[in-house]
Write a structure and sequence with these properties.
By secondary structure, the protein is α+β, with helices and mostly antiparallel strands. The protein contains 5 helices and 11 strands. A hairpin with a 2-residue loop joins strand 8 and strand 9. The radius of gyration is 44 Å and the shape is elongated.
């Protein structure tokens, strides 16, 4: 062996391992069989821009809302017990009558409640009432204008109410909805309140209505012994008004003819005293 070979052998980085005894071999096997726990490395959270974070939150929120999640229905009627009576406040004046009936039936009451569009002077009044068996159903309301805002309708129903009861109330009409029930045309709240319209010329009535943002929907004219309806443009301004009825919000129906009448129809309403001498 040369001198160089002896020098390389002296610095061999991986010399042959010495033979291990039985104890060393058992220790090695035990170490290999022991499970190694891997230390988890934590990562700092990524900070999203505000807009992206809000968008992500919205997506997550929608994802967790059931598609068929039912909405809680709002009642058309509110019920409150007061001693031997049940106070029922009508919340929705425009609900379907079947909805009222269902809510009454849920409380063991057989009551048919409905509303009909009425002219302002009779809004809130009972148009028809049949209390059936048991105690008398009482009705109270807070006066309201042409709009439904501020209207309040309430029923006082005896606890011993039995059998079927039917109630029909007048409610404010929607824009363009024709009145099913109406008061006098010169009553408080009506389009011609405090107007002495009998024997007023048709042209004069048209002018009064225009000042009040109103108009004539149609005319009734005498044709022999019977009256017939004609369009508003078919009656001349020099005819005379015989009678007027509320027709719809902002509109009236007029009876007119070519001659004056002797009878006076005005001041029929209960509100005539607040108009002074007419």
């Amino acid at each position: 062996m040369s001198k160089v070979d002896r020098m390389l052998r002296a610095i061999d980085p991986a010399p042959s391992a010495p033979q291990q005894g039985r104890g060393a071999q058992e220790l090695l096997e035990e170490i290999v069989a022991t499970p190694v726990r891997v230390r988890r490395r934590w990562r700092w959270p990524v900070i999203l821009p505000l807009a992206a974070a809000l968008a992500l939150a919205a997506v997550i929120g929608v994802a967790f809302v059931p598609k068929a999640a039912p909405l809680a229905p709002s009642g058309a009627l509110a019920f409150q017990r007061s001693g031997d009576e049940l106070i029922v406040t009508i919340i929705d004046l425009y609900a379907d009558p079947e909805r009222y009936r269902a809510e009454f039936q849920a409380r063991g009451l057989d009551i048919d409640l409905s509303f009909t569009p009425g002219s302002p002077s009779i809004v809130g009044q009972l148009v028809y009432s049949d209390s059936g068996e048991g105690g008398q159903i009482e009705y109270a309301h807070q006066a309201c204008e042409e709009s439904q805002d501020g209207c309040e309708f309430a029923l006082r129903i005896p606890a011993d109410q039995a059998g079927n009861a039917t109630l029909v109330l007048a409610r404010p009409a929607r824009p363009g909805e024709k009145y099913d029930s109406m008061g006098f045309a010169d009553a408080p709240g009506e389009l011609l309140h405090c107007v002495a319209f009998t024997n007023l010329t048709v042209g004069g009535l048209r002018a009064v209505l225009a000042e009040r943002d109103g108009s004539i929907a149609e005319f009734k004219v005498m044709d022999g012994a019977e009256s017939r309806r004609v369009g508003a443009a078919e009656v001349p301004d020099n005819w005379f008004v015989t009678d007027v009825w509320p027709w719809a919000p902002g509109k009236v129906q007029v009876e007119a003819g070519p001659e004056r009448v002797k009878r006076a129809n005005q001041q029929r309403s209960a509100g005539g005293d607040d108009c002074g001498t007419r």
